[in-house]
Amino acid sequence: MALALMLVIEGVLPFLLPAVWRETFRRITQFTDGQIRFFGLSSMLAGLILLYFVR
Question: What is the pTM of this model?
Answer without folding.
Answer: 0.69
